[in-house]
Amino acid sequence: MKPYTLLIILIMLTLPSFMDAQWQSSLVHYDAGNKLVYATDQGNNRIPDFSYAGYRNGESEIPVIPVIAVIYPVPGDNTAYIQTILDSLGNAGSKGAILLSPGNYQIWGTLKLRFNGIVLRGSGDGSDSLTNTILVGKGDNPTQRTIIIAGGGTSTLWKDQVTGTKTNISSDSVLVGSNDFYVDNASQYSPGDNIIIYHTCSLTWLQAINYGGTHSAGPGEDTSWAVDSHPIVYNRYIKAINGNKITIDAPVYNHLIKSLSQSYIYKYARMGIKTGIGIENLRIDIETLGGEDENHAWQAVDLYQLEDSWVRNCTSLHFGQSGIRINTGSRITIDNCKALDPVSTITGERRYNFNTYSGSQQILFKNCLATNGRHHYVSNGTSWNSGVVFLNCTSSGAYVSSEGHRQWSQGYLYDNHKELDGPRPGVSPVLLALYNRGDYGTAHGWAIANSVAWNCDVAAGDLIVQKPPTAQNYAIGCKGARITGISPPAPFNELQGYIEGSNTPGLSPQSLYLAQLQERLSISSVHDKGQIPDKTIKIFPNYPNPFNPETNISFSLPSPQFVTLKVYDLLGNEIKTILNEYKNAGQYSSKFNGSAFPSGIYFYKLVAGSFTATGKMIILK
Question: Other C-beta atoms within 10 Å of 289: how many?
């Protein structure tokens, strides 16, 4: 029987001196009923729900796919050898993991994962080829190529329409964070349809945002954004229809105001989109001459025309632009990956270690590490990008900031982002930025809107947060030398964004993304259904009342089986194993003593081979 996973019980441990330091944001906080409450400003701006990022909107864990083929390295170029196996299995309709045994695999070309349900899995991402899988990127033919491309391979930006399905949104306003609206005619749509929401880049909207805030580069130069240049586009699924009211699976991350722009929807034809593709447990080391050499492979991994897929436990080294780049990709998780030590000149279009390029939506990066790049974690894809989360990611040796980079990306969350060291000597001290970039680059202007830095630590660096017209950006509970929207250190004079609790420890919840996910996937619905889905979570912070440091968890086993019971902190780090043993059928109770751990929110994960009973929630005060 399929294993089930139950995530239960969150506790606040009793350490009075620490609890006294806990605080909540005025914009997102728990009410007396343990529900997240969101405040709205006079412009109807609010912090949106970011929990829809990642594989299947975070509603399913990344699966463990069984191995269907094993590959061993061969002398010389391994590109065609591996590609032949990938394609033969894909053409046969096979789904599963192709395991690359430990060793060095020379890759002189590009590997293409272009079939649904195929996973390329190595044996480890370490530097020892005796126990790990190392793809060695050799040569520069074609110049500045990609080592692995997963997906359909084309940047379509979801433009393919099902003929005759276009209908206008009739709601006067669809505000940031909303997931429903009215249309002129919903009769041709059904729940489950994949739709595209399209907000035109009209003259009226451009006027409302000061033509992108690009500012004139000089006499006679016009860097203003042009009509139709930057539409706001969302890739969504219909959850429900009631008359002409449509409810979608994830919120919008920008106001859709009818008086500024007539938005519309259409059915997406999904031409070329691939799903269920994974890259796991391998190392990509691109061969270079070091220094500022640029005659080598440029991207380690490209995710193009891809949905509900993942990269996990992978390391990329010595790329020119990106360790992982995403283009026309949605609902993708990048977990525990490293993008290290790029090799190139240090200038524009280079060293974007984790690069959300054009058409990146609902992407979750978690527990990642970037070193010695320029923009380590970046929104590089303009107004087609939204709903991206960087969770518990770290950065070292950055030349410039992780940031909203260009042309109205929306709905980015930097959650517990941490700079491991301060600014490099002689370069800008700004290490994280949600701001206006004016006439930088290709008229980057207002680079990002409705985005949040939550509980981030930029070491001795600066964090810049500015307010775009019609929108807002936020920095809550962050640490740094200067957290400001003022110029300097901001490059352009704009209104300061919303800043709260700077350099004040104890922000609750510690992670905004995890708190939002836990509330959305509430365990309360499980008791109504009498069954346990694959992932059920309930958050009980009970702020500011403390819990006892000791609590019990009870469960029943209908048959003998192996049981694992572990405790995790709010960022998903395992901190203690309570049980890991074979148990007979029966009723059990296990005790967790948290007195040795700091105050905070914790949760248990109980896994049993045929566990189907509803978990009992226990909260001790």
Answer: 10
